[in-house]
Amino acid sequence: MSFLQPLALIALPLMALPIIIHLINQQRHRTIPWAAMMFLMRAKRMSRGMARLRHLLILLMRVLAIGALIFAMSRPLSGGWLGSVGLSKPDATLVLLDRSASMEIQDLQAGESKRSTALKRLAQLLEQGDYGTHLLLIDSASGQLHEVDSPKALLRLPMTESSATSANIPSMLETALAYLKANESGRAEIWICSDLKENDWDVHSGRWNAIRDELAQLEGVHHFLLAYTDPPSSNLSIRVENVQRWERGSAAELVLDVMVRTEGGAPYPTAEGRSVVRRVPIEFEVNNVRSVVEVELDTLGASLQGHRIPIDTKLSSGWGSVSLPGDANPLDNRFFFVFSEPPVRKAVVVSDDTKVGEAFRRALAIPTDVRLQHHVDVIPMNRVAEIDWENTGLLIWQGTLPSGLVAEQIQHFVNSGRVAMFFPSKLQTLTATGEQLFAARWGNWQSTGKQSDIKGNISWWRGDADLLAHAESGDALPLSELRTYQYRAFESQGTLLARFDDDAPLLTRVATDRGAAYFCSTLPTAQFSSLERDGVVFYVMLQRALAEGCQTLAVASQRDAGIDALADRNQWEPIAPAGNNASLSQRGLHAGVYRDEAYWAAVNRSQAEDNAKTAAVEAVDTLFDGLSYRRIDVNVGDTSALASELWRIFLIAMAVALILEAVLSLPSRKTESSPLIDLTVAEGTTE
């Protein structure tokens, strides 16, 4: 149990006072042999049992009354989290707040979101108790650690407001771990406020083992998870993809795909056994010109593929948005986009193997749209100096991982928003020890042991986002049909996108400041896999990587919200929405349109944020195995206290104990009518 005034418990030994007084009182009676009283002994023995029981009950009530008074003075707290809290105050309390867009799901009646509910309940709890010498906040949007003056300050800080970002819970815990180790903190409490989205927790990441092992080495650290897993009753989200500007003769138009996704139950009701079709208006805005289109929802949502919007031919670049009527989550009801004339999509393949290089060239040279221009260069490693880094969107590197100046160039290339994909060398053993890039390294080649006619040695892949996401129709990519005969072992702490049935990684995305770095553990040629022969997965994977990497080559770019989303330029000015007055440090965290002279940028929540499902609570609990951990399941809008004081209950218990003591002390009828019994009781120890 936890106490607001634990020092009052020092008085607990006072509970022994009634017992001490009773024992002292017994010493006052002397035993005097008296023959005339011998006949009274039989009567005393007959009544001794009940009298002794009554005396013991009186003594017990007095002890309980004193104990209840002491506990009331110590102000005990009650809550589902108390089982892991000790009596000593923590040296530090760390709050890990999920500010992702999904945390803005609201209880429309209470007007509270998951984020605001968590903040209010946690601030109230910390105000009641002792949060230690330091109260620290790690917010998911910035990932930085901030010292907070008081729990109430959590409710008004810019770092606790809503954002369009996603969370990275493993990274936040690593930040907390670094603080605890650097400051040699003793007892500490870590409070995590999250809705358990899969993309935020990344429960399959190899980082969790290292995090858990390091936390287990710290004594006195308690972990509490405020889990908001309840889905919304009904919520729609909207996003735009494949925005393109085309000219046809003397006319110009925008072509884009619009997806509406449903969450939290059927999007349309039924009446008398018949389905009632629900139509939802979508408002389009292009450079302040508005139009509305209605779509019919099915159980998955709705989509507009290749929707066309006529524009002025003089409008070579600009911005727009699509929006839905308000519902449970206001942050996913509007999506911004920008447009410009499409750039040439340029890719460079670095490989000393002509056959492998040609496989990549064929998959990249054929555009997904005939109006797009693709340019692919295949060069050996000794010609890396010829790469035009500024105008290249995708780098394919097949071979030994680079080092020195080339490695630095690739890291700068990726951190500027481009994409690099790494495929292993054909050499059967490592040619150098310790070769690594982006904190990742290859191991030795392994054989899957599969025969050529056996399919399905890829057991899992991430289909909700990234390179292997489901097609726009909702169909999964045919990875289960692929055959892999050899793959290379791989070590990293990146995000796993696909794995074999022996849990070895096939495709991994390594975290970077911007852009993306992917590692694929096999090669596309027939000796290693059926990637090239089956074609579909190989083509889609490379085309998506090329599209992602070439976004920064265009004058207009779509960007996922993040602390560094607008870090490439210093003069970004907010264009939309109206009234966007976010500070420079917070601009990249909120959805909107920004402009720097000829350059446009649209910042939105990521696709993973829209598509992510809630992780199983059992899987999340497993991440904390062996640690002091307690999960508290709460509902959005429920701002009741996480803990309540129990001193009133103890005062009532004291009053009840005193009343019972008084009742038991009343003389019985038998005692009133016979002085012999009085003598017997007073005599006490006479034998």
Structure description:
There is one protein chain. This protein has 687 residues and is an alpha/beta fold. Helices cover 26% and strands 28% of the residues. It has four domains: 2-78 and 646-683, no CATH class; 84-231 and 617-642, Rossmann fold; 235-341 and 554-611, Immunoglobulin-like, CATH 2.60.40.10; 345-553, Rossmann fold, CATH 3.40.50.880. It contains 15 helices and 34 strands. The strands form nine sheets. An eight-stranded mixed β-sheet has the order 20-19-21-22-28-27-26-24, sandwiched between helices. The protein has a six-stranded mixed β-sheet with strand order 7-6-3-8-9-33, sandwiched between helices. A four-stranded antiparallel β-sheet has the order 15-14-17-18, with no helix packed on it. Strand 19 (345-351), helix 7 (354-365) and strand 20 form a beta-alpha-beta unit. Helix 2 (38-73) packs antiparallel against helix 13, helix 2 (38-73) packs across helix 15 and helix 4 (169-182) packs parallel to helix 6. The longest helix has 36 residues, at 38-73. The two termini are 47 Å apart. Mean pLDDT is 83; it is low at 79-87, 451-455 and 670-687.
